[in-house]
Write a structure and sequence with these properties.
Helices cover 11% and strands 25% of the residues. It has 526 residues and is of the alpha+beta class. It has two domains: 2-20 and 32-58 and 65-240, no CATH class; 274-520, no CATH class. Strands 10, 11, 12, 13, 14, 15, 16, 17, 18 and 19 form a ten-stranded mixed beta sheet that branches. A nine-stranded antiparallel beta sheet has the order 4-3-2-1-9-8-7-6-5. A hairpin with a 2-residue loop joins strand 15 and strand 16 (431-437). The radius of gyration is 25 Å and the shape is globular. 40% of the residues are buried.
Length: 526
């Protein structure tokens, strides 16, 4: 019965949708013509190196899209949203408690279509290999979304795991991008108003660029579990040619509240007893461990049209988890350690002996620095020589992305410290050199707990000697924590045709469960 409901509703949506551009532009006419890629496909992204982002700017005529069912967004406003009784009551309750239970307010992904109504910036990247579209979001916990454009269908049955962003496939209908998404969990709201949905949700988005400065967005909501029929909402999004994405980590703001609540709970509820023992045996490092070399290692380095190595392609890199980057197994220069300042040595020793209790990544914060290349999750590169930049997508590390500017810019003089820092890059022969500064002090260099200060300066070197191997080196320069610069490095292996999955650390994070006081001592009651 459930499957029949889904099939009937999807047929209704297919009948309801109209191909092509979504009517005339709602903004002032006479603007520049929409750009196209060399193959004739509309270019939904930037047209030149430098800056440029999409941003939903509220105005008196078109305020913030807090309620998709409100004027002027609902396509059939006289009918209103066709709620089922429970969904209407739930939406009214969510609104009445003023965001108290808003998943996005608790640093969870906002989901689709809410991601497209946020008042923060985003970018669209159109790739040819693999055939997909990637969206980078400044808000929404600084994460990314992918739309497969290779003609695949949605997975069926148990193969379709419910996720926050769903499974998206797309195609072009003339100059309109049509995205079909299913497989949502029930953890998100459709909008800030609190309109709910069920796991039967089927979303069809239509995105067009009628002129250079306008992105037309239309979305059809089909959820027979929450609404009596499909309904459509629509709005425009503006191009800001001088804008750029800024790192926004919602989890950082929430962490302080979470830790305060955890401490209070532990103070009130912890039973007496012997404290757990401190860790005494360091975990094994993997940087010096040789893994089986795949057959693809015999194949040559893939290259871009300009002759530079292609660090991306159809597949992903299996990151090697290097537990302690400052021990001999991982060091390239010097070969021995002993370059910590006394406080940094004491802090690193405290961190690992307490079993990573205060590891920021365990609290779903971005790893930052060279640790991004030693996560137990895969990652991908998107090479954009035409825009003079490189984008890195992380499956883990709270599903974040990183942008490396290759346009010759320098680091800003007034940098605001962030988790991922500010990265600029250049090619030195076949090696990509990435120079990063501007880190905050809320990350560790590795799972061991080697610390750093806001003076951290990292130089990374990426090279691809063959199809299957990525050689990585990182030189750490932090006079606030170490007596000299030091370099770590390791090889990372390629998985052909591998695809990144959605990983949301904030979902049901059990990292803090069962923690006790510092050094294993339970907090004393006053």
């Amino acid at each position: 019965m459930r499957m029949q409901m889904v099939q009937r509703a999807r047929v209704a949506v297919a009948t309801l949708l109209v191909s092509g551009l979504i009517g005339p532009s709602l903004v002032a006419q006479g603007r520049q013509e929409a750009p196209h890629l060399p193959d004739g496909t509309p270019n939904l992204g930037s047209t030149a190196p430098g800056n440029g982002v999409w941003v939903r700017k509220p105005s008196p005529r078109a305020p913030r899209v807090s309620n998709m069912g409100a004027h002027p967004y609902l396509v059939e406003p006289n009918d209103g949203i066709p709620y089922q009784r429970w969904a209407k009551a739930r939406a009214a309750y969510n609104q009445s408690v003023v965001d108290k239970y808003d998943p996005a307010g608790n640093c969870l992904p906002p989901g689709v279509p809410r991601m497209m109504s946020l008042p923060t910036s985003f970018e669209i990247i159109q790739e040819s290999e693999p055939k997909r579209i990637v969206m980078l979001f400044e808000g929404a916990t600084y994460l990314w979304r992918q739309v497969f454009m290779d003609g695949r269908p949605h997975p069926q049955g148990d193969a379709l795991t419910p996720t926050w962003l769903g499974h998206s496939v797309g195609h072009w209908d003339k100059d309109t991008l049509v995205i079909d998404t299913v497989g949502f969990n029930e953890g998100t709201w459709l909008d800030a108003y609190g309109n709910p949905h069920t796991d039967l949700l089927h979303v069809v988005e239509k995105i067009a660029r009628p002129d250079l400065m306008t992105l037309r967005y239309e979305v059809t909501i089909d959820d027979p579990g929450a609404y009596t029929k499909p309904w459509i909402s629509r709005w425009d999004i503006e191009w800001d040619p001088n804008g750029q994405l800024h790192e926004y980590i919602c989890q950082g703001e929430a962490l302080a509240k979470q830790m305060a609540a955890s401490a209070a709970d532990a103070e009130n509820s912890q039973a007496p007893g012997d404290p757990p023992p401190l860790r005494t045996t360091p975990p094994a490092n993997t940087a010096g461990v040789r893994r089986r070399i795949p057959k693809e290692a015999a194949e040559p380095t893939p290259r871009l049209t300009d002759g530079k190595p292609n660090l991306g392609g159809k597949g992903f890199w299996n990151l090697t988890r290097t537990f302690n980057m400052a021990e001999p197994a991982a060091l390239l220069d010097p070969k021995q350690g002993n370059f910590h300042q006394p406080w940094a040595k004491a802090k690193a020793d405290f961190n690992w002996r307490n079993d990573q209790k205060y590891d920021p990544e365990g609290y779903c914060l971005p790893p930052g620095g060279p640790r991004m290349m030693s996560l137990p999750y895969p990652m991908q590169f998107i090479m954009q020589p035409e825009l003079k930049r490189v984008v890195m997508l992380e499956e883990g590390g709270s599903h974040v992305f990183r942008i490396i500017h290759m346009d010759g810019r320098q680091h800003p003089a007034d940098l605001t410290p962030t988790f991922l820092g500010h990265a600029i890059g250049r090619w030195e022969g076949d090696t990509l050199i990435v120079d990063s500064v501007g880190y905050n002090e809320q990350t560790w260099l590795d799972p061991w707990g080697n610390p750093h200060t806001d003076k951290l300066h990292v130089i990374e070197r990426f090279s691809r000697p063959n199809l299957a191997t990525l050689h990585y080196e990182a030189t750490v320069d932090d006079p606030g924590a170490y007596t000299r610069t030091w370099t770590t490095g390791w090889d990372i292996l390629w998985t052909p045709n591998g695809e990144l999955m959605e990983y949301i650390c904030q979902e049901n994070n059990r990292y803090t469960y069962g923690f006790t006081g510092d050094n294993g001592k339970r907090p004393s009651k006053q």
